[in-house]
Amino acid sequence: MAKLGKARKAATEKVDATKQYSLDEAMALVKEVNTAKFNASVDVHVRLGIDPRKADQALRGTVTLPHGTGKTKTVLAFVTPDKEQEALDAGADYAGLDDLVKRVTDGWTDFDVVVAMPQTMAKVGRLGRVLGPRGLMPNPKTGTVTMDVGKAVSDVKGGKIAFRVDKFGIIHSSIGRVEFTSEQLTQNANELLGTLVRMKPSSAKGNYMKSVTVASTMSPGIKIDPKTIA
């Protein structure tokens, strides 16, 4: 433990807590100060100047990261029998309806993303108690309730991620892994942050992007200057 503490202390000393780094600098630095012995996730935390209690400011959406997240998502597709093969061909790990609804009802949640056809939502809607708290409930706004299940599944497998603002006005999202190059992390971060800029609610007043921080699973947070976002 002492060795880990020493490594963390050395990493912290490399980060100037009073400085806002450019996006490029921050992505290079987050790789340098990572102390994990595994391929840690790199996450961006964006504090927005919005009030999530107002319906038009409760931001949620999707973005396709150019280089994916570095993690293969396990996809569950709730579909009618005629669409099962299409979902599986597109990369779904599980596809079906009644048998899968029963498994989830019994507490099974060994998947990362749920896609559903509109016709299945009467049955899927009953799973809110299990899926809701885990952020797994399919939603038309994130493209996970759709007739085109094949495209929805392949989009997720290709790096499409969903995000939503929490009650404090913060978006938390993975943008890759420490094994990514700093250029790949920068491009992924730009895609996410640019999407958030474009989604600024017209009713939001004052400073919109209040703070942007990047950190790996086991690294100190690095502040990013919002003005350096392309």
From TrEMBL:
<comment type="function">
    <text>Binds directly to 23S rRNA. The L1 stalk is quite mobile in the ribosome, and is involved in E site tRNA release.</text>
</comment>
<keyword id="KW-0689">Ribosomal protein</keyword>
<dbReference type="InterPro" id="IPR028364">
    <property type="entry name" value="Ribosomal_uL1/biogenesis"/>
</dbReference>
<dbReference type="GO" id="GO:0005840">
    <property type="term" value="C:ribosome"/>
</dbReference>
<comment type="similarity">
    <text>Belongs to the universal ribosomal protein uL1 family.</text>
</comment>
<dbReference type="InterPro" id="IPR005878">
    <property type="entry name" value="Ribosom_uL1_bac-type"/>
</dbReference>
<keyword id="KW-0694">RNA-binding</keyword>
<dbReference type="Pfam" id="PF00687">
    <property type="entry name" value="Ribosomal_L1"/>
</dbReference>
<protein>
    <recommendedName>
        <fullName>Large ribosomal subunit protein uL1</fullName>
    </recommendedName>
</protein>
<keyword id="KW-0699">rRNA-binding</keyword>
<comment type="function">
    <text>Protein L1 is also a translational repressor protein, it controls the translation of the L11 operon by binding to its mRNA.</text>
</comment>
<dbReference type="InterPro" id="IPR016095">
    <property type="entry name" value="Ribosomal_uL1_3-a/b-sand"/>
</dbReference>
<keyword id="KW-0820">tRNA-binding</keyword>
<keyword id="KW-0810">Translation regulation</keyword>
<keyword id="KW-0687">Ribonucleoprotein</keyword>
<comment type="subunit">
    <text>Part of the 50S ribosomal subunit.</text>
</comment>
<dbReference type="InterPro" id="IPR023673">
    <property type="entry name" value="Ribosomal_uL1_CS"/>
</dbReference>
<keyword id="KW-0678">Repressor</keyword>
<dbReference type="InterPro" id="IPR002143">
    <property type="entry name" value="Ribosomal_uL1"/>
</dbReference>
<dbReference type="InterPro" id="IPR023674">
    <property type="entry name" value="Ribosomal_uL1-like"/>
</dbReference>
